[in-house]
Amino acid sequence: MTVANPNAITNSEKPSLRYPVICIDGPSGAGKGTVTWRLAQALGYQLLDSGALYRIVGLKAFEAGLITADASQTIDEMAVLALTQSLEIAFVPNNASGRVDIIVNGDAVGDQVRNETVGGYASQIAVFPKVRRALLTLQQDMATRSGLVADGRDMGTVVFPDADVKVFLTASAEARAERRVTQLLNAGQIADFEAILATIKARDDRDENRTTAPSKPAADALLLDSSDLDADAVYEQVKQYCQDKGICFNS
Ligand SMILES: Nc1ncnc2c1ncn2[C@@H]1O[C@H](COP(=O)(O)OP(=O)(O)OP(=O)(O)O)[C@@H](O)[C@H]1O
Ligand SMILES: Nc1ccn([C@@H]2O[C@H](COP(=O)(O)O)[C@@H](O)[C@H]2O)c(=O)n1
């Protein structure tokens, strides 16, 4: 028989060290990465780019011949899971690019994951519950060391359901495609608006209609449509919302 120690602290009474978590969810091109970076910089918080995790797995699955560009193919979920479990992924903030650099098994991955083709691979493997589960702890652990701003599709619904702030940032598919066109043209690349729009809509459809962790606003999220807002206006609105929720900014 176990005798209760009257001086023991029970689990429910233990003071738990908890850092603030801000979730920025929404579809591709809504401006999540932009506002996430600015918030993390302003607050001195870590940044979780969860899309990068799915992009890495998607790219590696493609390179391993587990998936192709044909989204209607049958994929071996267990093989993608094994591949996911073999990857050691780390993020390093990069002030020059305003994003995080991704290190996989000790090697920097570079910008090769940041294109629509790899976004498509990511959304193919993102439907698998076992793969999502394998990436869960890594994401949640990032909130145990400091404050965190997390960018994704299911940050507020699944990964951090108790987050202090949840924002679902969206914009029309046309506005998002236009942003991609501008981004590509600025990088000296060719951009076809109609092709980009079609890819964005196909990815939205897959992300919103999958069974596990579909892209959707948490019940307690602020919905913000950025179609007619520039990046500064989005930042100011999200910052104000964070302050309303008790997050302190020094500047
Ligand atoms: N409010 C805005 N108005 C116009 N352009 C914006 C706005 N916010 C971000 N952008 C630009 O749109 C592009 C996409 O932004 P960003 O990468 O932040 O989106 P995202 O939601 O993180 O996309 P993804 O999920 O695909 O990573 C970038 O070129 C960015 O500079
Ligand atoms: N929390 C997340 C984040 C991303 N995904 C999937 O990855 C794709 C790429 O994401 P980006 O944010 O980098 O564009 C995205 O289309 C999703 O399929 C996810 O499932 N959950």
Describe the structure.
The chain is α/β, with parallel strands linked by helices and 251 residues long. The chain has one domain (21-243): P-loop containing nucleotide triphosphate hydrolases (Rossmann fold, 3-Layer(aba) Sandwich), CATH 3.40.50.300. It has helices at residues 32-43, 50-63, 77-85, 116-125, 129-141, 155-159, 173-186, 193-209, 231-244; strands spanning 21-25, 46-49, 89-94, 99-104, 107-108, 148-152, 165-170, 222-225. A 5-stranded parallel β-sheet has the order 2-6-1-7-8. Strands 3-4-5 form a 3-stranded antiparallel β-sheet. A hairpin with a 4-residue loop joins strand 3 and strand 4. It is globular, with a radius of gyration of 19 Å. Residues 1-15 have low confidence and may be disordered. The protein binds adenosine-5'-triphosphate and the ligand Nc1ccn([C@@H]2O[C@H](COP(=O)(O)O)[C@@H](O)[C@H]2O)c(=O)n1. Adenosine-5'-triphosphate binds next to helix 1, helix 7 and helix 9.
- Cα distance spanning the termini: 57 Å
Which molecules are bound in this entry? adenosine-5'-triphosphate, the ligand Nc1ccn([C@@H]2O[C@H](COP(=O)(O)O)[C@@H](O)[C@H]2O)c(=O)n1
Mean pLDDT figure:
91
Number of helices: 9
What's the helix and strand layout?
Layout: E1 21-25, H1 32-43, E2 46-49, H2 50-63, H3 77-85, E3 89-94, E4 99-104, E5 107-108, H4 116-125, H5 129-141, E6 148-152, H6 155-159, E7 165-170, H7 173-186, H8 193-209, E8 222-225, H9 231-244
Parallel strand pairs: 1-6, 1-7, 2-6, 7-8
Antiparallel strand pairs: 3-4, 4-5
Helix pairs in contact: 1-9, 2-4, 3-5, 4-8, 7-8
The structure holds adenosine-5'-triphosphate and the ligand Nc1ccn([C@@H]2O[C@H](COP(=O)(O)O)[C@@H](O)[C@H]2O)c(=O)n1.
Adenosine-5'-triphosphate is lined by residues 28-34, 51, 179, 183, 226, 229-231, 234.
